Amino acid sequence: MANLLSSAPTHATLPDCFVFPPDQRPPASSQAVSLPVIDLSRGRDEVRRAVLDAGKELGFFQVVNHGVSPEAIRDMEAVCAEFFRLPAEDKVGFYSEDTDKPNRLFSSTTYELGGEKYWRDCLRLSCGSPVGDTKNNWPDKPQKLREVVEKFVGPTRGVGMELLRLLCEGMGLRPDYFEGDLTGGDVIINVNHYPPCPAPGLTLGLPPHCDRNLITLLLQSTVPGLQVSYKGDWINVESAVPNAFVIATNGVLKSIEHRAMTNAALARTSVATFIMPAADIPIGPAEELLGEGNPPRYRTVTFDEFMRVYKTVGARRESVEKAFKL
């Protein structure tokens, strides 16, 4: 079993396997972008326009007054930090390099293309909706982890579903277009932990990638590290507003490339909530958006097939689009 990064000494020299070639780790611009902040308590027409505009322009935005309680957010942040502080012997039984395993702890995983590893530990949890017995497959330490995650994931999924309804309304689709099988898969939570890194300029916490799901709700860390690709440059994302979710939309709406950087002095932990389709349903352009002069640009495939190709070609936007373009 590979050593967990969070258990490794911070003064260690960076192993060669973590060093990315210079052309794969271009430095970020000195600019920083402040993501649009959308108040979900405002009037529906105003919120719908704001969500659609932000999705078209940058593909990332923040939402506040979303209905997930500050207590649920604080408890989630605390229990995740506590998990990664556990001794390695308390986590080793949950460790697995089997990418098909729905619940696991893994470290410095590579995509199937390229040999570089990235500087991240990740706790991945698969959550039913409602959670029900699926929580019995999660770690039993810390003691409150299962209870806290269950209280967090339900309302967080609800925020994602409401945002999908708003996006549908803005694009001229029926509001319930994404109800049912298109959001019928388990909700996946990735707790990403980036330990202090001895040479942050040589490696990446996560390489450039596009998310593979419908919509992502990210509970940011106060430690900076998220960068987005914008107009040909890598731009630092400023720290999130307290208790805000950063939203990544997945075209009319951009599926924007992003990456995670490391930090020499501070650990960084973020919580990504992914709303997923059911595995065996077809994924393709909405018929309501097609017509004369606007033919489909991508082929229809099952979500299972999409995921197989995504893992094979890598998560770069250009590679994924090329694989499915007509």
From TrEMBL:
Gene3D superfamilies listed in its UniProt record: B-lactam Antibiotic, Isopenicillin N Synthase, Chain
InterPro entries: DIOX_N, IPNS-like_FE2OG_OXY, IPNS-like_sf, Oxoglu/Fe-dep_dioxygenase_dom, Plant_2OG-oxidoreductases
Family that this chain belongs to: Belongs to the iron/ascorbate-dependent oxidoreductase family.
Entry superkingdom: Eukaryota
UniProt keyword Nucleotidyltransferase, yes or no: no
Keyword vocabulary terms for this entry: Iron, Metal-binding, Oxidoreductase
Start and end residues of each Fe2OG dioxygenase domain: 184-277
Name this protein carries in UniProt: Fe2OG dioxygenase domain-containing protein
UniProt-listed PROSITE patterns: FE2OG_OXY
Record has Iron as a keyword: yes
One example GO MF annotation: oxidoreductase activity
